[in-house]
Write a structure and sequence with these properties.
Order of helices and strands: HHHHHHHH
Radius of gyration: 27 Å
Helix content: 55-70%
CATH architecture of the largest domain: Alpha Horseshoe
Shape: elongated
Strand content: under 5%
Largest sheet: none
CATH class of the largest domain: Mainly Alpha
Number of strands: 0
Distance between the termini: 98 Å
């Protein structure tokens, strides 16, 4: 049974009034994934903001064109978390808002995303989600710091090779130059 936008928004508001923001978030997120509903997405942005999830609030408010200090701060957090990777930002929008027709701001984002990822509109594997779930970050920060297991093993093997080479060289040198 498909519920109207006003029914979904009313249920989400009653859940928020009851202090159950996470349930309101889930109902709204499920609804907007299927239906292009600006009112529900605007409320979802407020729910994310209230839960302290500024990047998701920013994605929601960007999609509906919300303005104001809170929206601007959230959109900036969304862009920062996505590292201004327009393909990541495009995919973080709800699927229903990534279908035509697009308002100019979403069309511009799509064009910039296509410029950075020409395969943006190519259907992806069913094993790779097309959107980011509400429980995972929009993008993993890329860091060149730290070591992984392969690097540690590589350094150990390199050091072992140098030690063996020095021991071998000293041994061969002892055979060539007789000692007293």
């Amino acid at each position: 049974m498909t519920r109207s936008s006003s029914e979904v928004v009313a249920e989400a508001r009653s859940l928020l009034d009851a202090g159950r923001a996470w349930q309101a978030r889930d109902i709204l997120a499920d609804h907007i994934e299927q239906e292009r509903d600006p009112d529900a997405l605007l409320l979802l942005g407020h729910v994310y903001h209230g839960m302290g999830d500024l990047p998701r609030a920013g994605a929601a408010w960007f999609a509906v064109g919300s303005r104001g200090p809170e929206a601007d701060e959230a959109v900036a957090a969304w862009r920062q978390q996505a590292h201004d990777d327009f393909a990541v930002m495009w995919r973080s929008l709800p699927r229903s808002f990534r279908t035509e027709p697009w308002p100019p701001r979403i069309e511009a984002l799509r064009e910039r995303a296509l410029a950075s990822d020409p395969d943006l509109d190519t259907p992806r594997s069913p094993l790779v989600p097309d959107t980011v779930s509400a429980d995972e970050p929009l993008a993993e920060p890329v860091s060149g710091r730290g070591l992984d297991g392969a690097q540690v093993i590589g350094w150990i093997l390199g050091a072992l090779f140098v030690v063996c080479a020095v021991i071998g060289f000293v041994t061969v040198l002892g055979w060539v130059v007789p000692g007293e």
